[in-house]
Design a protein that fits this description.
The chain has 5 helices and 5 strands. The longest helix has 18 residues. It has 148 residues and is an alpha/beta fold. The protein starts with 8 loop residues before the first strand and ends in a 5-residue tail after the last helix.
């Protein structure tokens, strides 16, 4: 089992700045030592993951231990990003969590068909959001064994 204090890298793919800030706050408030990297859209996420352009330096763009994807984003939505991640042999082992306001059955089914490791509805309430982030961390970085 991984040590709870082990610092891991999370790539958050989210176009909503308020949700980005809330995620940062949730990790800090919960004393979760994960490093949060942010991509503002799907194209930027794939550039980060493939170390292209401004993400070429691995010291500045460490490989994430987890990817958290919003579905509804401009340019390239979360499901399209998920499809690319899970079809890339170098990336497909990274757990990908769909973290979205959509509770549409079709989005849930399609996400799992594309290889999502979890599908979680974003809580609207801030306290519930903070609790959800703590639970995600507890399961994925304490309970579950992840490949290096």
């Amino acid at each position: 089992m991984q040590n709870i204090l082990k610092k891991s890298v999370i790539l958050l793919v989210e176009d909503n700045i308020a949700d980005q800030l809330l995620m940062k706050r949730a990790l800090v408030d919960a004393n979760i030592p994960n490093k949060l990297m942010i991509a503002n859209n799907g194209i930027e996420a794939l550039e980060y993951l493939r170390r292209e352009g401004k993400y070429a330096n691995p010291d500045d763009s460490p490989t994430p231990n987890m990817i958290i994807l919003d579905i509804n984003m401009p340019m390239m939505d979360g499901k399209q990003v998920l499809r690319e991640i899970k079809s890339d042999p170098r990336l497909k082992m990274i757990p990908a969590i769909m973290f979205t306001t959509s509770s549409q059955e079709q989005d849930i089914i399609e996400s799992y068909q594309l290889g999502a490791n979890a599908y979680i509805n974003k809580p609207i309430d801030i306290a519930q959001f903070m609790d959800m982030i703590e639970k995600i961390n507890q399961f994925w970085f304490v309970v579950a064994e992840l490949p290096n």
